[in-house]
């Protein structure tokens, strides 16, 4: 399996340390890269996300810990991955896998305060996201409102992260 550039050493250490077999790539984005995995530590297949930037890792772990504290398994009928484990040294998050409909990828989320965007940036963001989601945009707004109620402000919203 070819590994995304920049992640090779981190993935090698993770595999050896936790006796993990990485299976399929689920995708690489601006905040990290995700694989399905199996390990004696977890009874079923799971997903593991590798981060290169500590700030994105810490934000995402914070969101998963908040969701865990609130016992959130779904939002507006969309499954949310469940936190299994995380490693502050390797910047990895292990979570359950989910099938559509789902909400995932919280590396671009903020806890307790929305990002400090100007009103113009928010306007452009809403227009772009409305176009991206089309007829599903009203349902996406409901999902985002539910997350905001939990103190989770999701800025990285796209049809790959919120799937119907």
TrEMBL record:
* Protein's UniProt name: Protein kinase domain-containing protein
Species classification: Bacteria, Pseudomonadati, Planctomycetota, Planctomycetia, Pirellulales
Superkingdom as given in the UniProt entry: Bacteria
Tell me which species this is from: Novipirellula caenicola
Name the InterPro entries for this protein: Kinase-like_dom_sf (IPR011009)
